Amino acid sequence: MSQSFRITQLTVIGVGLIGGSMARALKGSGACEKVLGCGRSLANLEYARRLGVIDVIEQDVVKAVKDADVVVVAVPLGAIPELFRKIDGALKSGAILTDVGSAKGRVVQQARETLERTLGAFVPGHPIAGSEQSGVDASHAGLFKGRCAILTPIQETTPEAVAGTRRLWECIGARVYEMTPEAHDQVLAATSHLPHLLAYTLMHTLLHTESREQIFQFAAGGFKDFTRIASSDPVMWRDICLANRDAILAMLQKFNTDIECISRLIREGDSEGILEFFSHAKAARDQYIVKDKT
Amino acid sequence: MSQSFRITQLTVIGVGLIGGSMARALKGSGACEKVLGCGRSLANLEYARRLGVIDVIEQDVVKAVKDADVVVVAVPLGAIPELFRKIDGALKSGAILTDVGSAKGRVVQQARETLERTLGAFVPGHPIAGSEQSGVDASHAGLFKGRCAILTPIQETTPEAVAGTRRLWECIGARVYEMTPEAHDQVLAATSHLPHLLAYTLMHTLLHTESREQIFQFAAGGFKDFTRIASSDPVMWRDICLANRDAILAMLQKFNTDIECISRLIREGDSEGILEFFSHAKAARDQYIVKDKT
Questions:
Q1: Mean pLDDT over residues B22-46, rounded?
Q2: What is the pLDDT of residue B292?
Q3: Is A154 on the interface with B (CB under 8 A)?
């Protein structure tokens, strides 16, 4: 972290798991003097202030952003366009605007449609960290330590805004990567969006199975871990599905083809084929875990 | 646990995660004097003896079972028929034969085909406990504490054998349930076999995605938990798929229909429909976790 990196005022719009954890981490790092929290629920903001996550409450978004050095937008994706429209031109000169949305192509498109005067200050971002829990309750200062933060700057983004956002993430322990919004959306569709959809869908399938009472009674540890992400916030995930529709549908299609493949192997009792399918999958997963530990 | 429950000799055929954990737990409970280990790999048996999991090694299965009070068969499902054929009639009078296979219908059918003199002593069983790890290395005495052990006795099973097997599991902390082999196989297809197949298939899909290097680089905690079971033993899971084929294919079919449903909702941008789908899934998963904790 650069010694000179200082945020006099950080404004967090949407003080939930991610916004709250960023506020906590930046305050904890010593880089940030004051955190202003903004959001639709006054009760949530007051709770966040009592928890020490934010220092000041301001529900008027224009007032909330006007003195900020950095504005972090951490609302569900669906709420971004209206918010951008309101704050365009309201930030002071040199301020940074960044977001944490899980899909980037749509956000970039919306930014181009809604941000006229503030587009250069906007750095689309996404920390690869989270939890099936949501809300400021679950926020903590260590959430981003050692995790990846992906930035997807566009042509219009100023180099200063990118550099500042990079230091912001580095300062709270994240490893920063840059890629295009399109590359981000394809990678995330595969590693995050598809697994979430599978977990939600599995719960759906089991809910509509005749013996569902027994099913849940006899579920073991594997089931618990596998379905953990099905406890994630439905609104957030609805918005992700709408925002990253094409990449998600493409992954679902690929997955479907593979499900048909393993179904056929099982139907035909193809012992060798099934073993090969599972062995490749296990090898890939074991290798991933080894890499993850290094 | 009944005070009178004593096993002078326990024979474990297949000293891996489950067989090894049963041996450890029964010795730890004080109910079992001596554990004889049997299996194809002498190196594994010698390792298990050095670890204190078993006391005696005997690779001849007929000799291994002849003095046992209880014989636990903990080999992959595919190895069961040949084993049953060899040990039929070799157990002493009053001894119990039980297994721990993850699919019961096929085992019962094979038992009826291969066990002539020992069928009454056979209690098909399945502890709902395990790990993506396998082998005696991962075995531990507490694996079954508070977990379910399902017994699926058949018409031919003697009441004494069922009672003895029940006490054996209770004595190491498991809660014992009885159901038909068919009911067992349907429940397990839903809660265990389907999730394992989805995890294996997801790894397969990602492995064959162009950007797979990046994909694994940017995978987060949700992905790690979701795919944990894809590190499970491929031979064991190949055998489960072959043994419980019909119930598994039925679940895959149901799941496929639900994947088509959510794909359609996403394709059509049906915001309300997606939210409802996710909300139901989350509610079911949250409720399951609450029940699991009680």
A1: 97
A2: 66
A3: no
CB count, 10 Å around CB of A170?
17
Residue B2 lies in a domain: no
pLDDT of residue A16: 96
pLDDT 10s digits, A33-88: 999 999 999 999 999 999 999 999 999 999 999 999 999 999 999 999 999 999 99
* Count of beta carbons in the 10 Å neighbourhood of residue B101: 25
Interface list for B 16-35 with A (CB within 8 A): none
Q: Could you tell me the CATH number of the domain that includes residue A117?
A: 3.40.50.720
The per-residue pLDDT for B221 is: 74
Burial grade of B66 (CB within 10 A; 0-12, 13-18, 19 or more): middle
What average pLDDT does range A93-103 have in this prediction? 97
Are A201 and B248 inside 8 Å of each other by CB?
no
Is A50 in CB contact (< 8 Å) with chain B? no
Does any domain span residue A2? no
User: Which residues on chain A are in Cβ contact (under 8 Å) with B262?
Assistant: 197, 200-201, 204, 252
Q: In what order do the strands lie in the sheet with A70-73?
A: A56-57, A32-38, A7-13, A70-73, A96-99, A122-123
d(CA B132, CA A226): 12
| Residue numbers of the domain that contains A257 | 183-293
A73 within domain boundaries:
yes
Pair A131, A43 in one domain: yes
What average pLDDT score do residues A165-191 get?
Answer: 96
Strand pairing report for A148-151 and A125-127: antiparallel
The residue out of B179, B194, B215 marking a domain boundary is: B179
Are A67 and A175 within one domain? yes
Q: Is the pLDDT of residue B293 over 60?
A: no
> B46 and B165 share a domain?
yes
**Is B71 contained in some domain?**
yes
Q: Where is the domain boundary, A148, A179, A210?
A: A179
What percent of chain A stands above pLDDT 70?
97
